[in-house]
Design a protein that fits this description.
Layout: E1 15-19, H1 34-46, E2 51-55, H2 68-81, E3 89-92, H3 96-104, E4 109-111, H4 122-129
Parallel strand pairs: 1-2, 2-3, 3-4
Helix pairs in contact: 1-2, 2-3, 3-4
């Protein structure tokens, strides 16, 4: 994936958010299956999204934390359905194992809402991959 589109000198980019959660505060769980999420992601791209952000755990207030296995089970099938898209894909996770698996499945950047404090192995995953991190 050509990440040169993401640079300090580029125009403002639009990130399309794809939440694969039953309790998302953003979309109310409307894209809870891999097929629904992938279809929505393609709609976002067609509507002009420059980057996709795929997340499997809700960060709304009061949301329960997910196990890494459960988060992976939510996001990987969607990532596998998006292997041919022509935009960078960000994985929204603070779990290093989820990030590692998502990068192997086609994600090109990490969006960690804990600023690398949620999992001590996350910085190593990012360094090993050499990928951008939000």
């Amino acid at each position: 994936m050509d990440l040169t589109r993401i640079s300090p000198n580029a125009r403002t980019l639009v990130m399309g958010i794809v939440n694969i959660t039953p309790d998302s505060f953003y979309d109310g769980g409307r894209h809870g299956t891999p097929d629904q999420a992938a279809a929505y992601a393609r709609t976002l791209i067609a509507d002009g999204a420059d980057i996709l952000d795929i997340g499997g755990e809700s960060s709304r207030p009061g949301a329960e934390s997910l196990s890494t296995d459960r988060e992976i089970a939510r996001v990987l099938p969607t990532l596998e359905r998006l292997h041919e898209v022509d935009v960078p894909i960000s994985i929204d996770t603070y779990h290093a194992d989820t990030a590692r698996r998502a990068l192997a499945a086609g994600a090109t950047m990490i969006n960690d809402i804990t600023a690398l404090r949620g999992d001590p192995a996350m910085a190593d995953v990012i360094a090993e991959a050499g990928c951008p991190c939000v």
